[in-house]
Structure prediction request, 241 residues.
Amino acid sequence: MSQFFGSNRSGYSDALVPSSQADVLEQRNFITKVFGWMTLGLAISAIVGLLLDRSPQTVMAIGKSWLLVMIVQLALAFGLSLAINRISAALATLLFLAYSASIGLTLAIVMLIFTRQSIYSTFFVTAGTFGSMALYGYVTKRDLTSIGHLAGMGLLGIVIAMVVNMFMGSAQLNYIISIIGVVVFVALTAYDTQKIKYMYMVGADGSEAHQKAAIMGAFTLYLDFINLFLFLLQFMGRQRD
Prediction:
């Protein structure tokens, strides 16, 4: 992914700041495209979830095969992330949309557990929080690299803690993980948005590299949104009777 996430951007030097009105417009168009793809991914996830919600028996069957669902999701995510420089823009787009559809399976299970009202209210809180942090990441002149690195370490800790808690089944540890998860993905939303601002520079508008950068940016922000939503749901969600 080094083509899109260059390692020499610490401090976001003046060389990376758009130097002309044309560059500013190109950056804005790129960001618009990124958020457009992200929104499409969220819409696909929601549609798949709502369609499956009409058949609780199907959702319960999917729930029993949660390990297989998770393996498919991980395969799609790692396939897109690790092969982005070797695959076409069309295939990258297809993998992103397929991953979004697979998350719809997870959302269908969530809708079987939590009430619709609490899911909707959590979604709006997530959207507001995500939007605020994304805006901050876009407009701030502060370098968020250090915050991003800390959030990345926090994310690694969350993954380890979640694996451990699969065997422990501790409600208290799950609560702590959820708190840290919200903080981590709030920080990552701002950091990733700032990072994505400069990804338009990988190639000319309309090129393969430019299109793949937009998909990777959308995929990154999509993950931030979905994970923030799922962690917030641990606090705001009300389980069905």
